[in-house]
Amino acid sequence: MDGDNKSAKPKPAVEKAAEQTGVVVSDDALLFDDSPEKEQRAELAAAIATLKGDLEAQTKTRDALLAKSSLTMEQARQLTDEHIDHLHRYNDIKDAGQMLFGKLAELKDKTVKEIYKDYNVDIED
């Protein structure tokens, strides 16, 4: 019986990974290839299949979060980009402030820590 799958042998991991990843590997290449690359190809195909599964799971999680937030993908990207821009600006301003405190400490022959204390600025700020 052609349609009977009961007699079919389970597919090796390499073949499953090849099916999942779309990587085409001929049966002859798998059967007669004793090279070390065969094992590497099998590991890579399995890794690709795992990564594709992870990507699908992360995509589903992302889509569920977007659905909860009522944001479109474009709006979420724009919000993220704006947040990153704000972080860059904050870091640039903080760096400039630290340089000024350093120069002031140098001019007053004090440590930066003392300058922070003089201006009631927390050293962690």
Automatic annotation (TrEMBL):
<keyword id="KW-0234">DNA repair</keyword>
<protein>
    <submittedName>
        <fullName>Swi5-like zinc finger protein</fullName>
    </submittedName>
</protein>
<keyword id="KW-0227">DNA damage</keyword>
<dbReference type="GO" id="GO:0000724">
    <property type="term" value="P:double-strand break repair via homologous recombination"/>
</dbReference>
<feature type="compositionally biased region" description="Basic and acidic residues">
    <location>
        <begin position="1"/>
        <end position="18"/>
    </location>
</feature>
<feature type="region of interest" description="Disordered">
    <location>
        <begin position="1"/>
        <end position="20"/>
    </location>
</feature>
<comment type="similarity">
    <text>Belongs to the SWI5/SAE3 family.</text>
</comment>
<dbReference type="Pfam" id="PF07061">
    <property type="entry name" value="Swi5"/>
</dbReference>
<dbReference type="InterPro" id="IPR010760">
    <property type="entry name" value="DNA-repair_Swi5"/>
</dbReference>
<dbReference type="GO" id="GO:0032798">
    <property type="term" value="C:Swi5-Sfr1 complex"/>
</dbReference>
<dbReference type="GO" id="GO:0034974">
    <property type="term" value="C:Swi5-Swi2 complex"/>
</dbReference>
